[in-house]
Amino acid sequence: MTSHQTDKLATQLINALVAIVVLILLFLLGDILISGLPHISWHFLTSPAASFSAGGGIRDQLFNSLYLLVLTLLISFPLALGAAIYLSEYAAKNWTTGLIRTAIEVLSSLPSVVVGLFGYLIFVIQFHFGFSILSGAIALTFFNLPLLVRSIEGALHAVPDSQREAGISLGLSNWKTIRGIILPVALPGILTGIILSAGRIFGEAAALIYTAGQSAPLLDYTNWNPTSADSFLNPMRPAETLAVHIWKVNTEGVTPDAVSISAGASAVLIIVILLFNLGARAFGNHLYNKLTGSK
Fold first, then answer.
1. pTM
2. Residue pair 214/51 in contact by the 8 Å Cβ criterion
3. Any transmembrane segments, and where (predicted)?
4. SS3 for 231?
5. How many domains in the chain?
């Protein structure tokens, strides 16, 4: 067999494997969406959940997921940005840097249930945060940090060295060069990483069972005081998220229309995650074209 035939065979094999992966993904997405879309309605999205009667919705669970997402990003993004800037622009290639990168890789490979139990023991029990949005957000930060650090560091590495040399030639300090030249150029990649990590946060369930809790108290959406117990902005209240709600409805079996609720909630979850991923690509490309002036 000639090298040309070998290359052609290898290309066909790779294309076949890729096609299999795509077909599996389309099958899973199609099955979830076909089963769940008929159950999605405005009433379903804006009504509170009902535990022992039919006709409940996912209003509070959907809001809890979005609130938890925002709070997690507020905690994890500054930490990830600082770590990525240090690793990309300041850290030397030595054993300390290697240890930091190894720690990031280990952190990204931890099972979610282990992180959830750790968050339960430390934040819920030891720090007396209880089952709360804050406990869940801190636990999810452990998931989000490795992904954000890698994506931001990759965006910083993608900036050409000529940009750094231009800042130095203008007499700027290293920090001013990073702040005024490198970060603006890397902004599309950074924002893309943030949006992609948001999709992972939104769909997490196992860690939140032990930290944010499995209950969704009725919220007062007119009460903007975050210190009030029934306020929708109170970070110390328990918060059942959409992913946890799907698990809970299927395991407890006390809701008469559990099948339709879990199917509709799963479809909503998939749609939101798809919007995060597709929106990240589109927004990153648009922002990159805008900053570079390309079409």
1. 0.87
2. no
3. 12-34, 66-87, 99-123, 129-149, 181-202, 258-280
4. strand
5. 1
